[in-house]
Amino acid sequence: MVAQVTAETSRRVRAAVDRPPVPSVAERTAEGKALRERAPRRSHAGWSPPADRPDPLDLLQAQDRSREPDLIPIRYGRMVASPFAFYRGSAVVMASDLASTPTSGLTVQACGDAHLSNFGSFATPERNQVFDINDFDETLPAPWEWDVKRLAASVVVASRANGFRAADCAAAAAATVRSYRERMAEFAPMGHLAVWYNRITGPDITATLPPDVAKDLQRGLSKAIVRDHLQAFTKMTIVQNGQIRVADDPPLVVHMSDVQLEERLRTLARTYRSSIRDDLRELLNRYTFVDVARKVVGVGSVGTRCYIALFRGNHDGDPLFLQIKEAFTSVLEPHAGKSKYPNHGQRVVRGQQYTQAASDIFLGWGRIEGVDFYVRQLRDMKTSVDVTLLPPDRMVLYGALCGWALARAHARSGDAARIAGYLGNGSAFDDAVVSFATAYADQAERDHAALVAAVKSGRISAEIGR
Question: Could you give the CA distance from residue 261 to residue 432 in angstroms, rounded to a whole number?
Fold first, then answer.
């Protein structure tokens, strides 16, 4: 036995010695800089739709085939509201468009839908608030540029919707990309563990803000503290025949008449429990299932199967809400390659855990009759910024904050030194992406107008105001 251990130890030592040395930060930075020959930074500028560009409405309607038919009009009703609402719901369109744009060849665990409204604050397991990406439905390993371009273009689309001048739109987009580039340069020389543990906290943010904005931020974070399971319990439940139930709010929250639904969800619960840690499984076992209802969420997610499940703990004041959401194939997959995970709920969960600074303790996945789902808490001190209310100066600050968070996520899953080397110290990449974002905002507005026309003609049914 001792001889076997010694032989195995020797084998590992030889493997470690024979392994090629890891390039230094300086060497990897130089390698990143050399990638500009493959894709010059100026090549990211502008956008012209290719002659064979798919009809964006065809792409959207292709997604409808696997969605709940009665919810599809709500999806389009939300998307016709504005170009920014359309942009939020049309990740599949931009994924197709980005596939034709140049890249450096470096990949990260991409968000896949990195627009302004998919960032926000939430609680860590230690009950501290952090700011980060908060939507991972489309996550997949892919070029880092795709996330940066989607984020920058969202800044321009949202700024135009707010009535900003062209110069203010460009300034906000430039601040976003510049923040990404400068933060990536900071992450590049950091130790791997330091990057892994890095978080963007309230004090981190306020230290970068003017006093009046910092005060507003603190006010918002204070409100977020009470946006927890107890608030959700108060707002979303009723007492019916002496029993606590999820309150119906048709068509957004409804109990389903399908008598098999509860049994199917119990089947999901069994597969889901195996995806979380043993200690959390024991914690969850202390809660008793009470009720379940279908819930409509988001813009792009409308029509996907999503449920909220209510559990009771020690007493009525100890509730737990879990959101059970269907996971589809990522919109990036046709262009970046198939996920390595057999379950798309697992893809979402693993991508989130890989890139997010801290993830929900109940985050897990399961499957019902061949349909993939992921599970998380419904609310956990979550809050986000309503970008439709931001003036130009605050759009600049918020765009920079999102750029910071995106750089942190990419540095955690990618090679910050190579990306920083490619970006460089000047504004060449920033300027190019602002040019792209401006031109792509024009494209998003044209696509939104096409959707509005399709609704008016009757090609697409839309239920407005839901």
Answer: 50
